[in-house]
Amino acid sequence: MRWLQRHVRPEQVRELSLLILIIVAVIIFGSLISGYYTARTFNRIASSVAIITVVAAGQTLVVLTRNIDLSVGSIVGFTAYFTGMIVAANNGLPAIVVVLIAIGMGMAMGIVNGVIVAWGGVPSIIVTLGTLAIYRGLLIDYSGAKTITTESLPKWLVDLPTTELFYIGSIDMRAIVVIAIAVVIVFQLATSLLAFFRRFYAIGSNPDAAALIGLPAQRMVFTAFVLSGALSGLAGFMTLARFGNITVVAAQGLELQSVAAVVVGGVNIFGGSGTIFGAMLGAVMIGTLEQSLFRLGISEFWRDAVLGLLILLAVASDAVILNRLRALWARSGMTLVDKPATLPTTGEATR
Amino acid sequence: MKKYLLAAASIALLAGLPQVAAAADAPPPGKELNMVLLPKFLGIAVFDQAHQGAEEAAKELQNPAKLQFLGPTPENSVAGQIEIVTNAATQGVNAIMISNNSGDQIVPAAKAAHDKGIKVVTWDSPIPSAEGEDVFVAQVDFTETGKVMADMALNILGADGGKLAILSASPDAANQNAWNKAFQDILKNDPKYAKLQIVDLVYGDDQSEKSYNQALALVDKHPDLQLIMAPTSVGIVAAAKAMQDEKLCDKIKVSGLGDPTEMGGYAKNGCAPQFALWSFVDLGYLAYYTAYALATGSLKAEEGAEFKAGRLGDYKITKDPTREKGLRILMGPFSVYTKDNLPQ
């Protein structure tokens, strides 16, 4: 126990237990569904989780700062559609330019969110609920009710989701999955190693203390929204590549899926704790459940109910179990605790 | 000379006959009528085509009032449709053309509009109970849709038959439900299709991603699936793309109702060897003519009434055989597309 306490943080216990839960779930589903342990099941879950994971990575950064970004679904849909329109008109554009256009578009929308939240002082849930409707509205209006079709896109883009970059055994790693994994690795490393990214935790876990030591809270909140927008832009590009046919409903409801992934992945909705890796695990857990419950023949409505239950459990366990764990760690005199064991209760906390 | 006259007279008589028998009048042009065209929701290519057709009819009929193409946003389809119908009634437009996505939930709003003297024409998808509706402009006969789907399935799977699944749009769409039922009925009752077995019915809500994921999930759930039948233009493309992405086109074919401009590639590469559709441009055109004729009073919404709808010719209002109550104008026909007859 002491060894465990010395080397593992309470938050990591949380992620470890989620990992174990995923493994248990896979074993249970594997015994119930014939032909479950195949490369196909892996591919299916991996590709359906890839897009949510990228969005959830951005969402994590925002949630760490005690905010929320509900406009991500609209940003993904908007960038998927308009990037598609640009590529359809200019089939010769190099891949990197297309990706940059998508990221740039998402970033611009993130900047709008960030400015209003950070300097306008409007609660993020209200701002992003507004921009969710505005971005989707702009998309519907400017799309002229047309559909982007696979036919009009260049071949490299249409083939991208099935492009296999390399193999691990019989499992082929597809480009779109590799993009998602790369995003997780980059942002996980940045948030655990770089001082600049650690500030997200600082201003989220104790805004007053962060202000006292002179951290630019507004600029950090702004940065979180811009990064979330940029990652949503990237996810928009991935959506375009994967589905090919983009209508104005593209990526609708993704905001809730991303919040669900973040919360199930152990990111504290009140800010200050949680990791990108955890958010990915959350996305994988949800993806595994959705795919597997469908194959078991369980109706869509029950699947949604199971998902809801999972979110409740995640948040409740966060409040109860994690606090106990932290207390345990604190009692044993370990100094690894990086967050006070209290939930924020001040008015400031709801910002 | 007398002979010639007689011949000429009989020819004139013959030529005149169809006109006399049909007695179909074209509606008087140039009337100022405010009309609303309401699709299920915005952002679907085929509804845009219907809008084109309606604009074409509006131009021909020289209606000085601008046609309002109003639709709800996709996530708000049911409530949005009801709201648009209610607002149109308050504004006092002359006619509303609805592709109903709200089942019978739209009845109170449609009835209120109808009671105010507004002509309510449904097109593409009717009001199931027909309450508050003057007439339904049916793209094709709904029972025939079932047969066309069954024939395509038989053509693709061959005499040995096989397992197939339906990928529909939303559970509230009256047209989808009617087609699926007609399809299921004919497979059950006609021995010709005895070897075609429907193993599942799922809904993709006319959302590309959801339809794509549902198609993949069908494949996983039913390892010996051979055909996905999607009677929706969004679902069929998504399913075809999914099968292509998973390199399953050799094993699992896609068919159903699809837009040839979107499906061309999949017809050529064999993922969707056959699919069918009618012209949505014509459907919008006919819906506009019908609503316009009703609003001018030159056409009465009753069984047996006839009128001339511009370039499409003569139409007759009949009882709708697929609904208990309700009148219908039948457009038709189906075009079945293969790689050999794609429009350029």
- C-alpha Rg of chain A (nearest Å): 20 Å
Which ranges of chain B are low-confidence, i.e. pLDDT below 50, for 5 or more consecutive residues? 12-22
Mean model confidence by pLDDT of chain A? 86
- CATH homologous superfamily label of the largest domain in chain B: Response regulator
* Coarse structural class of chain A: mainly alpha
Can you tell me the CATH topology of the largest domain in chain B? Rossmann fold
**Distance between the amino and carboxyl termini of chain B:** 53 Å
The 3D shape of chain A can be described as globular
Write down the CATH class of the largest domain in chain B: Alpha Beta
Jot down its keywords.
heterodimer; A: 351 residues; mainly alpha; ABC transporter involved in vitamin B12 uptake, BtuC; two-stranded antiparallel ribbon; disordered C terminus; B: 344 residues; alpha/beta; Rossmann fold; 8-stranded mixed sheet; 10 helices
Q: What does this 3D model show about the protein?
A:
The complex is a heterodimer of chains A (about 350) and B (about 350). Chain A is mostly helical. Helices cover about 70% and strands about 5% of the residues of chain A. Chain A has one domain (about 10-350): ABC transporter involved in vitamin B12 uptake, BtuC (Orthogonal Bundle). Chain A has a two-stranded antiparallel sheet with strand order 1-2. In chain A, helix 3 (about 40-65) runs parallel beside helix 8 (about 175-195), helix 4 (about 70-90) packs parallel to helix 6 and helix 4 crosses helix 12 (about 255-265). Chain A is globular. The two termini of chain A are about 40 Å apart. Chain B is an alpha/beta fold and about 350 residues long. Chain B folds into two domains: about 35-140 and about 280-335, Rossmann fold; about 140-275, Response regulator (Rossmann fold, 3-Layer(aba) Sandwich). In chain B, helix 2 (about 45-60) packs across helix 10 (about 280-295). Mean pLDDT of chain B is about 85; it is low at about 10-20. At the A-B interface, helix 3, helix 6, helix 11 and helix 13 of A face helix 2, helix 7, helix 8 and helix 9 of B.
